[in-house]
Amino acid sequence: MNDTIFDKILDGRIPVETVYENEDVLAFRDINPKAPVHVLVIPKVRSERFAELAHRPVEETGRFFAAVSGVAKILGLNDKGYRVVINNGPDAGQEVEYLHAHILGGRTLNWPPG
Ligand code: AMP
Predict the structure, then answer these.
(1) For ligand 1, which residues put their CB under 6 angstroms from it?
(2) Which listed residue (38, 55, 100, 102) is catalytic?
(3) Catalytic residue at 100?
(4) Pick among 3.30.300.130, 3.30.1370.100, 3.10.105.10, 3.30.428.10: CATH of 5-105
(5) How does pLDDT run across 62-104, given as a tens digit for each residue?
(6) pTM attached to this predicted model
(7) For tag attachment on the chain, is the N or C end more exposed, with fewer CB atoms within 10 Å?
(8) How confident is the model at residue 26, as a pLDDT?
(9) Cis amide prior to 112 (ω within 30 degrees)
(10) Which of these, 43, 56, 55, lies nearest to 99 by C-alpha position?
(11) What distance in angstroms lies between residue 31's CA and the mean position of ligand 1's atoms?
């Protein structure tokens, strides 16, 4: 697998504004925010796509989603709400082939997304 921009962020080659980190995940502000709060959460063990999670250990996947939920709480989004988005593949517009969850909040979000 070739290094993606998120591999470079994870090992410090590209700087980001980190909002949370533990042994499983790194969470940082999106460089091109689509909402007042827009944070990306990546697992430290790389999967390229959400589709791979069907074949990953469920404990690892569970810790990833627990961390996403915890980051949203840290960001103060629990009361007013937020959206978690994972783009999988070209039809969904996935640009970076490294699994990542978007946390979007701080404004009313339209449904369905375009
Ligand atoms: P996706 O379309 O789901 O693959 O989303 C990729 C996201 O990565 C986009 O929202 C980009 O704005 C974001 N992104 C790309 N490069 C960086 C970077 N250097 N720092 C933070 N976010 C980035």
Answers:
(1) 5, 14, 16, 30-32, 40, 87, 93-96
(2) 100
(3) yes
(4) 3.30.428.10
(5) 999 999 999 999 999 999 999 999 999 999 999 999 999 999 9
(6) 0.98
(7) C
(8) 98
(9) yes
(10) 43
(11) 6
User: Ligand 1 pocket check: which of 95, 100, 102 to mutate, most ligand atoms within 8 Å of Cβ?
Assistant: 95
User: In sequence order, which residues have a C-beta less than 8 Å from that of residue 9 and are 6 or more positions away?
Assistant: 16, 26, 28, 42
Is residue 30 within 8 A of residue 5, CB to CB? The reply is no
Total number of residues shown for the chain: 114
**The token pair that represents 97 in the structure block:** 């082939």
How confident is the model over 1-16, as a mean pLDDT?
96
* Residue type at position 63: R
Beta-carbon count within 10 A of 80 CB: 10
What token pair was written down for 3?
């290094």
